[in-house]
Amino acid sequence: MDFPAFCILEVIKLKEMHRWVAIILVLVGASSYGILSSIIKLAYESGLNELQITTGQLFFGMMILWIIIGFRRRAWQNPIKTPLLRLTLLGFMGIALTSIFINASLRDLNASLSIVLLFQFIWISIIIESVLHKKLPTIYQMLAVLIVMFGTILAVGLSIEDLQQMSIRGFIYGFLSAITYSLFITFTGRVATNIDSVLKSAIMITAALPPSIIVMIILFPSQTYIQGELSTFLFWGLFAAILGVVIPTISFNLGIPKIGGSLSAMLGAIELPAAIIAAVIVLQETVLLAQWLGVFLILIGIIVAEKK
């Protein structure tokens, strides 16, 4: 093999490796969100409320990201010289509002129905991508969506009784969480892709925190930060920050620009299997055979989505 051909082959291998690394990063970020649901449930059981948990998640996540930046001086860039408004909107709409809306939905609906509503982000993201690229989804994408949505219904054990007891307010919050998560998945790969991923994540969370607190105070007017012990707030706030802010935002900011929003949306379906496995291990919940079948179908859907 001559030298130029060998070099081209090595470049192709490197690109393939980068693609799979990006896929793994998106899977890690989505799985982290899935595990977070069990941690949030434990935080509620410890006596914390939605206002405390969501604020702690965002605030401690912001602090951890800036600490990481402090040890990575070469990644530093003046935030004022970045597309600050777009990063603020991305952080506020994608991370903060998604957390706020899903927590509000969980207040009025059971977890199963809230998860099904959140998972509408899969087809919403693909529609947004299709509009942006001005082309229809592929047959594999449409097939993957059907498989994943059917698998989701099985995996959460959704029943007719759940639908009959549905709260309109909870439904609206749940569907809004799907829309905001779709926007985050879609535009993370389009905004400020030349900025270091950790710095980008830190700017997004920092700029989005003040308006997020205002929204939470409006949504949860009867709640207060003065509830429970400080050590409890610090423990669960840090835990939620790592799983709900640090790992997902860095992983998505690294991975999504390389593989696009449509595939990232399908890979995001791994969040539910991760949530179920975490519930079994952390909360020691019982999972039925039909739910494991749903998990299997979701994994099949993710594989189908990767087809060209």
UniProtKB/TrEMBL annotation:
What Pfam families is this protein classified in? EamA
For this record, the Gene Ontology CC terms, alphabetical, are: plasma membrane
How does this chain sit within the bilayer?
Multi-pass membrane protein
Q: Which domain of life is it from?
A: Bacteria
Compartments where located: Cell membrane
Chain ranges of the EamA domain: 22-156, 169-304
Give the chief site where it resides.
membrane
Please give the SUPFAM superfamilies that the UniProt record associates with this protein: Multidrug resistance efflux transporter EmrE
Q: Which UniProt keywords apply?
A: Cell membrane, Membrane, Transmembrane, Transmembrane helix
Q: Which residues cross the membrane?
A: 20-40, 52-71, 83-106, 112-132, 139-158, 170-189, 201-221, 233-256, 263-283, 289-305
Give the family this protein belongs to, as stated in its UniProt record: Belongs to the EamA transporter family.
Which protein, by its recorded name, is this? DMT family transporter
